[in-house]
Amino acid sequence: MSDIQSQLQEIVPRGAIYKGTNKSIDSTVHKVEYVTYPSNLSHVLEIGSTSGDQKVFFHISGNCLLDGKNSFFSIQLKTNKWTSCLSGDITSLFKRLTISLPSSGNQILEDIQEYNVLSSMIQYVSASNEDLETNWYSGQSSMLGNTREENMEAARRDLNWNAGTDGWRTYTFALNLSGLLQHSLYLPLFLFNGIKVELTMSSAMEALHWDHENESDWESVLQSVNHRLPLKEGDIDAMDGGDPLSKQLKSVYQRGDPDDTVGSLTYTIRHFTYHASVIWASTEYMNRLREGVASSKGLSLFFNSYRFNIIQPESPYVQFSFTEQLQNLRTVLMCTLMDNHRFSQKHHSVNFFSSHIDNFTFRIGSRIFHRVDNSQPAMSYVNTLVAMNRFNRNKANSITSKSYNRERNVHVFNFERVIGDSETHSGLDTREGKLLRLELQFKDDPVIDLKRTDNTVIATLRRGYSYNEVKVYAFLRFTRMINISNAGIGVSE
Length: 493
Hints:
alpha+beta
C-alpha cells in the first residue's frame, strides 16, 4: 500500500483530471446529467424520541465519474408536533456518516461520527447570519433560533407550517463534511465498483427541539409560531371547541389536536434520494484511467476527513491523549456540550456550545504549542479564526461577542505550517510515539449559599455548570488517501 508522504507532490488539481488524454474536454466528456439514486427506504421511516442506530443507505454506482461538488440529497421530513423545529439544520438528523466499498467486503473509505454536532460547529464559524437565512433549502435558517424567540418562531413555522401536501417538508442539502463526496476531482465510480453511503439517524430528542408547553392548546400553538392567520377575538377559543378551522388545519397538515400529554416526540422521513451529477467520458479516457490503476503505483485520491473523540472530565483539569496515528493532522475542533442538553427535546442538542473551558494547550512529547486562553474571549476567538483561515479576510460568520460567550463557544487549533493550503500537507505527524496530548482547564464555577443570620441556607447561586456536567467533543481533521492499484484498494491516513 502506498504511503501518503511518498506521494504528497502528486496531487492533481481538478482542472487537470483530463491530463494525459491529449484530447480536449469536448472529446473527453460525452455527457453530463443528473442521475437519481434512491435510498433503501421503500416506505416511510419513523424515528422516536430515544430511537437509535436506525440506518439509511445509498448504493451509488455506474460506468461513469461522480461530480460530488454539484450533487445533492433531498428528503421529506414530518414531525408529529405543531411547534417542533430542527435542533440545527437538516444535518441534525444524521448521527454518523460512513462511506464504504461493497465490492471489497464493505471496506471503510470514510467514517465521521457525531456528524450533526460537527456540522453545527463548522457552520457557526464559516457561515454568516445571511448565509444561514438564505440557505433555507437545507434548514440552516433554524440555526438562528436557539437564543431569540422570534427566530424560534420562524424555525417552527419553517418545518411545520411551510410544509407541502399532508404536512411534509422537503429539504435539499449536501454532506459538506465528507471529503470524499465533496472532492475537487471527479470520483471514478467504475474503478470503485460503486460506493455505499450510509447515514445513522439521530433520535427525535436529539434532532429536534420541542417544548410541550408550546402545545397545550391551540392558543399556545399559534402564539409559539407567531401565527398570521386572520383570526378575530374568540376564534382561537372556538377552535378548541371543534371549530371547522381546526379541523381544516388537522386535515391539511395531518396532525392531531395539540395536547402536551399525548404521545412522545417523533419524526418521519420518506423519499430520501441522492441526485448525482455524473460525467460520461469517452472510452479512450476511461481506458487510460484503467491503465493507470493497473500499475503498482496506481491512482491516489487525497481528501480531508474527521475522527471523533469524547472526553469525560473527572476533575477541573483534564489531560487527554489522542491515540490516532495520523500522517497529516491539520486541525482539532473542540466544543463542550452539557449532559442535560445533549439528549433533551427542550434544548438544542447539537448546536448549543457553552463556554466552560478556561484554557487549553496541546503537547507532543516535550513540544508545547501555545496556550489558548478562553477566559479572554477575544484571544480564543481570533485563534479559531486563524485556524480556519478566516482571520482578517472579510469573511463573516454568525458568531457575536454575546453568542461566543453563551452558545457558540467553538475552538479550532491549527497544526499546519502553511495554513489554508490543502496542497502542501504541512500538518502534524502523530505516528511512532508522537501522540498528541490535550491539557485543558475548566472555568471555576463557585457555588454561593445565601444564608440567614442563623446560618440556614435561603438559596444557592451558581454562575454556570460544573465540569462534571459537561463533555468535551473533539474532532481531528486530517488527510486521508485512497490508492487504487493492481494490489487493490488501500486506505492510508
